[in-house]
Design goal:
Blueprint lengths: L2 H9 L24 E6 L2 H17 L3 E6 L1 H14 L6 E5 L3 H6 L7 H4 L8 H7 L12 E13 H4 L2 H11 L9 H10 L19 H13 L17 H13 L14 H7 L5 E5 L17 E5 L8 E10 L6 H12 L1 H10 L6 H4 L2 H4 L5 H7 L3 E2 L7 H16 L5 H17 L11
Parallel strand pairs: 1-2, 1-3, 7-8
Antiparallel strand pairs: 3-7, 4-5, 4-6, 4-7
Helix pairs in contact: 2-14, 10-11, 10-18, 18-19
């Protein structure tokens, strides 16, 4: 595709033309489907994108369909698309960790010519984690779409109750307040644990997808540990004393969760919070809209705080970029949508609908900060986010981490055994990279 020509036409205002349904604008051959088909996980942000896409259609005449796949099947669905080189989807709103495999195996179209002129319009973290691969290469494969991070909701009425404050002060020798450190968080969670009516927190410990890993990694990083050292050395790093202490700490927090928390995935913490069973709940920001709706009887008493730090302060990154499938038959129209989506005006509309924009202009505005009660915590989290591996071996690395962390949680393995197993398996997986020229850059 002649990307520079496309961008030139767009900049001259010559590229907003109605599309002929069922025809590929690039070569007038029959397309696999009329208009654009965008695939994403089945959740509220995908509904927001549905609404936003209607504006694109009204401006251009190009139909847009948002296909929503349940989270439990999302990655496998995309893996099947890539394996079959299917043209079923034109644009993929994919997790940040998919970037490495999609870029190196040719599943995403390189968008460097599109992103270069506009990258400064987005936050540095969003370009690094949703667009650029490998880091520092100046090569881009997506436009930031939905920013996200882990944070906490809490019950203000409990935290501000004078009786609770006095009891907490007597027990812990300090004021009851949203915790700044993980050790402070442990005290708060312990204090409010009063089974069976109330528990201190609800945290995602589930074995599916990446849930327990995302919960663990921000504790690991904040305690001063990491998954690997320079040159992807893992033994002695992921199984270091610091990493073991972080895992022991995560397992101890399970005591302050409601029964069944070892299987909590994305929805359960928010649901249990709305049922009034916990004082705090760990949630991705993208799962917080129900907390400000009528489905939350405690919405007037709900407030938010960022994930705590400890020796350092890191927050688990979530969110997705939107990328062009290499197998799309509608690539010109897809480029048109991406260029339109990246405009400040569109990003503002995205935020107004409920999307968590990565646009600097949007997130710097008072309007965005005040648009939702959790947006202030979202803005505070942005400079602290950090991601899991996004290299092509991501899925195997993640599966190993998920399996052994959960085994430790269930006491099938000790924390030392679990992390030793992760170190051994990660080492084996990463050792294969030495056969790839320039592997150390990734």
């Amino acid at each position: 595709m002649k990307m520079r020509l496309i961008l030139a036409l767009f900049s001259l205002g010559l590229f907003l033309f109605p599309a002929c349904p069922g025809i590929d604008a690039a070569d007038n051959t029959p397309a696999a489907h009329a208009g654009l088909r965008i695939v994403w996980a089945e959740w509220e942000p995908a509904n927001f994108l549905d609404t936003l896409a209607d504006r694109f259609t009204s401006e251009t005449g190009i139909p847009v369909e948002i296909v929503k796949i349940p989270w439990s099947n999302f990655q496998q669905t995309i893996n099947n698309v890539w394996a079959q080189k299917s043209d079923e989807y034109d644009l993929i709103v994919g997790d940040s960790q998919w970037l490495g495999i999609a870029a190196t195996q040719g599943h995403y179209v390189e968008l460097t010519d599109l992103v270069n002129p506009i990258q400064s319009n987005f936050t540095d973290q969003s370009i690094l984690y949703y667009s650029e691969y490998p880091a520092g290469s100046g090569r881009y494969y997506g436009i930031p779409c939905e920013s996200d991070a882990l944070a906490f909701a809490y019950r203000k009425d409990l935290f501000e109750d004078s009786t609770e404050q006095e009891a907490f002060r007597t027990r812990y020798g300090r004021e009851l307040a949203p915790p700044k450190t993980w050790m402070e968080f442990r005290d708060v969670a312990e204090f409010f644990t009063r089974p069976p009516q109330l528990y201190g927190t609800a945290i995602s410990y589930g074995k599916d997808y990446d849930f327990i890993t995302m919960t663990y990694e921000q504790i690991l990083w904040s305690f001063g540990g990491d998954f690997h050292g320079p040159g992807f050395v893992v033994d002695g790093v992921i199984n270091s004393p610091v990493a073991i202490n972080a895992l022991i700490f995560l397992i101890e927090l399970l005591e302050f969760n409601p029964p069944g928390a070892e299987n909590f995935n994305l929805d359960e913490p928010g649901t249990i919070f709305r049922e009034g069973k916990v004082a705090t709940a760990q949630l991705w920001f993208t799962f917080m809209p129900p907390l400000i709706s009528e489905t939350n009887p405690y919405r007037e008493q709900t407030d938010y705080f960022i994930s705590p730090g400890q020796v350092h302060h890191y927050v688990s990154l979530g969110g997705q970029g939107i990328s062009l499938s290499a197998y799309s038959k509608n690539q010109d129209q897809a480029i048109q949508f991406l260029a339109w989506f990246a405009q400040d005006e569109t990003q503002l509309a995205w935020a107004e609908i409920g999307g968590l924009s990565a646009s600097k202009a949007v997130v710097a505005s008072e309007a965005f900060k005040n648009a939702a009660p959790y947006n202030a915590a979202f803005l505070e989290s942005l400079p602290l986010v950090k991601d899991f591996y996004n290299i092509p071996e991501y899925e195997a690395l993640m599966q190993s981490t998920q399996n052994h962390l959960h085994e430790a949680l269930l006491k099938v393995e000790t924390p030392q055994q679990a992390l030793d197993n992760i170190a051994r398996e990660h080492g084996q997986i990463l050792s294969n990279r030495s056969n790839v020229i320039g592997w150390e850059l990734y």
